[in-house]
Amino acid sequence: MLINRWLLVDHIGQVRSKSERICLQAGPSFNDLPEVIRIVQQLPAGHFSVMMPGEPPHEKADRYIEMLLTLFFHPGYAVANYMPIIFTTANTTPSALMGSLESKARKQGFAGLSVRTVYPGEDQLPDGAFSLRVDRSKPDLAGMIAAWTKFSLSTEAAQEINLLVATTAEDGDALCSKLGNEVERLSGTDRYEVAARLYEQQCAISRYREELKRMANKERDNEYYLGVQMQERSKGMEWYHREYEVLPLWYKRFGHIIKVIMGKRSFRSLFTDDHKKDKV
Prior knowledge:
alpha/beta, 2 domains, elongated
C-alpha cells in the first residue's frame, strides 16, 4: 500500500491487535524467539518488521542475525522486491551487524535488505524520507502525499509512506485509529489516486527488474554448469585416449577373449562386426 501504519512496540507482549502492522524494536523480545514467531504466524502476510535502533552488544550480534534470518522466511514478515524491510532511526549509523546480516540474507536467496530510515514526526523530513514516528499529533498526510509524488516522479525507486505509532505514545491506539480514518478520507481524493497509481507502476517495474536480474543470474549459472560438464567430458576423453587407445593391439584382443570367457560376449562375435553395431 502507498501509506502503511505500523504499531511500534518495545516488547512482543505489547501486541494486542492482529490487524495492525507490527514493528518490533530489537531488544528484550529477541530472547524469546518462539513467542515472537508465534505472534508473527498470527499476522497477515507482510504485517511484521523490526526496528534496529543501533549497534547491539557484540555478544548479542550473532543472536540478532540468527533471529532475523529465521523471521525473514515467515510469510508475515514484510518484504519488498525480495528484500526484507528493516527500519532504523535517523541517528543510526550503518553498523557491522547490518552488513553481515545483508550478506547472509543474500546467501539465503534474498536480493538484499530494504532499509527504511525513520524520522521523528516533529522534524522537517529530508527529501526522499517518507517514514516517520508519530507520538502525538497527526502528520500532514496530504502534504506528504504531494511531496512523495513530486519525489517519485524523478526516481524509479518505489518506497511507500510509513507511519510508526509508538505504543508508549499517549492514546497510541486512538492515534493509530485516527490515522486510519485520515488515510481512508484521503483515498477518495484525486491527489491520492494519482499517487497510488504511480506507486503501483513503480512496484511493477521493480518486480520486473528483479525478475530479469534473477533470470540473468540463472542463465549465468546454467552456462557455468554446462561449461563444467563440457570440461569434465573433455577430461574423460583425454583419459580414454591416454589410458586405452595407446595400448597395443594384442592387449586389446586379449581383453576381448577375457570377455568371452566371462560370458559377456559370444565367441562368434570375435570374428564379426555385429557386436560393435549392437553397441552403437
